[in-house]
Amino acid sequence: MGKENDRIKPFSGPPEETLDYSKVEPFIGKSSPYHDPHDIVTQSDIRHWCEVMQDPNPLYRDEEFAGKSKYGGIIAPPAMVQTWSLDDMHDALQRFVYANQPFKEDPHNQLFDLLDSEGYNGVVATAQEQTYLKPIRPGDVIRSRITVAKVSKYDHFTRQGIGRYVDILYTFINQNDEEVCVESFRVLKYKPPMDTRRLYEG
Amino acid sequence: MNLDRIKDLVGKESNAMPAPDVVSTSDIRHWRELMEGKKESWNTGIAPPAMTLVWAMSPLWPEKVEATEPHEQVLKLLDEAGYGIAVGTGLDQECLKPIRIGDRLGYRVKVVSVSSGEEETRLGKGYKVDLLYTFHNQKGEVVSVQSYTIFKSRMLIPVS
What we know:
Shape of chain B: globular
Radius of gyration of chain A: 22 Å
Distance between the termini of chain A: 38 Å
Structural class of chain B: alpha+beta
CATH class of the domain at 17-40 and 101-201 in chain A: Alpha Beta
CATH topology of chain B: Thiol Ester Dehydrase, Chain A
Number of helices of chain B: 3
Shape of chain A: elongated
CATH superfamily of the domain at 17-40 and 101-201 in chain A: Hotdog Thioesterase
CATH superfamily of chain B: Hotdog Thioesterase
Number of domains of chain B: 1
Number of strands of chain A: 5
CATH topology of the domain at 17-40 and 101-201 in chain A: Thiol Ester Dehydrase, Chain A
Number of helices of chain A: 7
Order of helices and strands of chain B: HEHHEEEEE
Oligomer: heterodimer
CATH architecture of the domain at 17-40 and 101-201 in chain A: Roll
Strand content of chain A: 15-25%
Structural class of chain A: alpha+beta
Largest sheet of chain B: 6 strands, antiparallel
Order of helices and strands of chain A: HHHHHHEEEEEH
């Protein structure tokens, strides 16, 4: 009897350390400065996007049609808003290949660094919602900032592993400081399960 | 293959075709990022001359199906005869005037010559097509002349 019980071992690993919410709290509600785009909004970038998405809407290409519409001229596809603030090639390579984030001092980047160091180093985007406030037109200069809106107070148990949801808020403004779009973006920062972690750590 | 129809097209020039877009800072940046790496400023006022052919690139979608211009017809006739593989084998560029941001370019393509018979190469048997591109800007000034050679071959290019 005793021998049988010896075989059934309880979970023997040390209890997982969990994140202290007070470390996260200072980042909540903090915004990055507005970052400048690399380019103005151009007709050719709109065309490239429409071709890849196979979007035939004449509002985005036909001057005559768009002029008669309620917008009074060509507009950029609203869903394209994030395109105007994308990294250039150099920054994109640094970010995705060399894990070297641009704008390290921005609150959301510091928050992600903190979560990484606490073991929540997996990331998956779970929701995105955009609200369009004003049309974007060729020639506009779209600047953007990121605000940390919310972080889960407690751990969530998900299929991906133990994690915390992080809500960040994008604000896009044009050259006249008018808000053109607000976007909420939710990511799950999670601790990869043990078997996956072993794969990473060797 | 109907070689006579191809011979009829040699020496013919296309109508003036407009570039899909005006010369823009963003397209110049995309090109220079790939070719030159990180720069403090991308805006130099003029487009890199080596980029000229880019402004004449046709849209990805919707695909142009009908071959209306002489050079398109030559390539289509070769396609139909089974020479479906195209390899660019030579490009000479002569840049006559600077291309500035905001310019609206147009271009014409002339079929200069087509091989009189099948040529045998490492890429298989095929035909060489020599084209001449003439670029002009919105004022009608010729900005660049480029000769472009395409080899249309029957065989797939070996991978290794």
